[in-house]
Amino acid sequence: MGRIYGWLPDPIDEFATGVLVKCSGVTADDTYNLGTIRYYDMDYKFSAIAPGKNPGKLENGSFHSMYFPYRGQIAYLQPLVFVMFDGVKRNTFIRVRCWLIAKNIKVDFARGEGSAEFEIMYE
């Protein structure tokens, strides 16, 4: 989703602040082995004073609409969402799938459209 010239997201509803991102395991076993998934984005209020009390968002993350559209701005910063897999089972190979949610984003897992897959091996 990086630097698509002139593109504007169409949020899924009036409460969404941009393009939502959601992750899960590819299979039920993968999801179980990931543990709790936590999202940290611009909407999340992070406390540097008490970092241990930062549980993250549990439903999804958001690439905030303020970053769109990209028009070649000088010093443009791409939006970020940090995803933490809290409780990954050791010595397990896990497949993860993350996808974008907006009215004008087509998601096709088979073709990799609007989504990304990666693997975790935690030893």
UniProtKB/TrEMBL annotation:
Keywords, alphabetical: Membrane, Signal-anchor, Transmembrane, Transmembrane helix
Membrane topology, as annotated: Single-pass type II membrane protein
TM regions (residue ranges): none
Subcellular location: Membrane
Keyword Cell membrane belongs to the record: no
GO molecular function term, any single one: ATPase activator activity
Chief location: membrane
GO cellular component, one term: sodium:potassium-exchanging ATPase complex
One Pfam short name: Na_K-ATPase
GO biological process terms held by the UniProt record: intracellular potassium ion homeostasis; intracellular sodium ion homeostasis; potassium ion import across plasma membrane; sodium ion export across plasma membrane
Family the UniProt entry places it in: Belongs to the X(+)/potassium ATPases subunit beta family.
PANTHER family: NA_K-ATPASE BETA SUBUNIT ISOFORM 4-RELATED, SODIUM/POTASSIUM-DEPENDENT ATPASE BETA SUBUNIT
Annotated protein name in UniProt: Conserved domain protein
Source organism per UniProt: Mesocestoides corti
Lineage of origin: Eukaryota, Metazoa, Spiralia, Lophotrochozoa, Platyhelminthes
